[in-house]
Amino acid sequence: MTIARLHQVFLDYPIISTDTRKIEKDSIFFALKGANFNGNSFASEALAKGAAYAIVDEDEYAVTDRIILVSDVLIALQELATFHRNHCSAKIIGLTGSNGKTTTKELIYSVVSKSYKTIATKGNLNNHIGVPLTLLSIRPETEIAVVEMGANHQKEIEFLSNLAQPDFGYITNFGKAHIEGFGSKEGVIKAKSELYDYLISNQKSVFLNADDPIQLERLKTYINKYGFSSQQQQFYKISFLGANPFVQLQVEKMTIQTQLIGSYNFTNCCAAIVMGKYFNVPLKMVKEALENYKPENNRSQLIEKKGHQIILDAYNANPTSMRAALENLKAMKTQSKTAILGDMFELGDTAEAEHQQIAELAAGMNFTLVILVGNNFHKTITNLPKFASFEQLADYLKEQPLENSNLLIKGSRGMALERVLDLL
After folding, report:
1. Which of 56, 162, 269, 376 could connect to 355 by a Cys-Cys bridge, CB 3.0–4.6 Å?
2. Cis peptide leading into residue 245 (ω within 30°)
3. Local structure of 50: helix, strand or coil
């Protein structure tokens, strides 16, 4: 079946399912394969549970006319997504970067949706499967789609950009994330800049943080750019007023008080503001959107528990975001400050050095207490309390409960440090 014909089927049944445990009635089930499963074998089950059609790529499973055979299910999903993207009139904002992608995406959505029918990537479904699913959630009435793109190796953003074909793009920053796949900080810059490369080659519009010298240099000769800055007059002026603990900023003499912890969230807010400005969202609505946004899912959440004011930032971590979180804690105007730091993943050959640097940085900040947990932090040379496993940390905290404190909990997702909350 051609993609054009498959798209006609999709228009009649515009819901995509990829998991038979979550089948929606009258959806199209795409039988994707994984390392430990073959989605083709679930095609008939998907139909029995209410799917209208199933897409398979192995002939033996195409046993009814409601099971459509293609050469490759994943490629069919991706090609259908691009076909649908071009079928619809929605404008696409592409978003990538080392840190803050999901928060920035949510902020942009909150602002732009004040004036436009907008959809955005759900959660962090930002890879070669998640991006197609986002594109296929665009409806005829959708005016703007905010599409988050993640990557852990070269050419991935290039692939996703060609798939989503964004009209606009923004890169949050270039940090030390996924070094194992990118090889170096220069590799990160090259990989994330693949979004710029797509936009520039197709003469599309770019949003930028003009206070980031990397972005400014990369785009200095490009005309179709719209930037924000707290310093440079030729760009939209947004001033940082502080973060104790929540980010406060000023734009066009209007003060905006957010519910976002950490000065590192200032530029995430700025990206949403400058896009609101570009799309003519009234500034009072921009203010309302930012002030009402409250982070969740372990991303810089502020939680009060058992006398502790907790900054729960346990969704992800890399050297750049870890440093920013520590500096934010240091800047907070409170007496007692505690940090529980978990391992940072996907750092490859740099893991030992990066964990040592963070341990030394944290040790020099004169906090009340810093605790390190994870195999990599356990290998560091430091006088800080350190534990190879979460279980060892749990035993320690049972014997030595934490006193009331401003408490930062930060680590990579695999560390699941939100479990610390149950130990307080």
Report:
1. 376
2. yes
3. coil
Query: Strand (E) positions, 262-384?
Result: 301-305, 308-313, 337-342, 369-373
DSSP 414: G
Give the per-residue pLDDT at 276: 98
Task: Report how far residue 41's alpha carbon sits from residue 43's, in angstroms, rounded to the nearest whole number.
Answer: 6
Degrees to nearest 5, angle at CA 9 with 4 and 11: 90
Strands 144-148 and 168-171 come out as: unpaired
- Assess contact for 198 and 155: CB atoms under 8 A: no
Low-confidence stretches of the chain (pLDDT beneath 70): 175-185, 297-298
> What beta strand segments (E) does 199-336 contain?
205-209, 225-229, 236-237, 239-243, 246-251, 254-261, 301-305, 308-313
Residues with Cβ within 8 Å of 409's Cβ and at least 6 positions away in sequence, in order, are 310, 311, 312, 313, 314, 340, 417, 418, 420, 421
For residue 32, give Cα distances in angstroms to 17, 111, 411. 10, 35, 31
Tell me the two tokens of residue 214. 């990397």
The pair of three-digit structure tokens given for residue 319, joined into one six-digit string: 């050297």
Q: Which of 171, 150, 161, 169 is nearest to 93 (CA)?
A: 169
pLDDT by residue (tens digit) across 207-254?
999 999 999 999 999 999 999 999 888 899 999 999 878 999 999 999
Q: What residues are paired with 257 via a beta bridge? A: 248
Asked if residue 212 lies in contact with residue 270, where contact means CB atoms within 8 angstroms, the answer is no
Q: Which amino acid is at 388?
A: A
Q: What is the pTM of this model?
A: 0.86
Token reading at 416: 């699941």
Q: What is the pLDDT of residue 122?
A: 92
- Tell me the domains of the chain and their CATH numbers: 3-77 (3.40.1390.10), 88-292 (3.40.1190.10), 301-423 (3.90.190.20)
Query: What pLDDT does 298 receive?
Result: 66
Q: Is 371 helix (H, G, I), strand (E, B) or coil?
A: strand
Query: How is residue 192 annotated by DSSP?
Result: H
User: Cα 377 vs. chain centroid, distance in angstroms?
Assistant: 25
Please check whether residue 82 is in contact with residue 3, taking contact to mean a CB–CB distance below 8 angstroms. Answer: no
Residues in the chain: 424
Choose among 354, 336, 337, 356: nearest CA to 345.
354
> How many helices, marked H, and strands, marked E, lie in the chain?
16, 22
φ and ψ at residue 293, rounded to 5 degrees: -75, 130
The beta strand positions in 16-66, using DSSP E, are 16-17, 28-30, 33-34, 37-38, 53-56
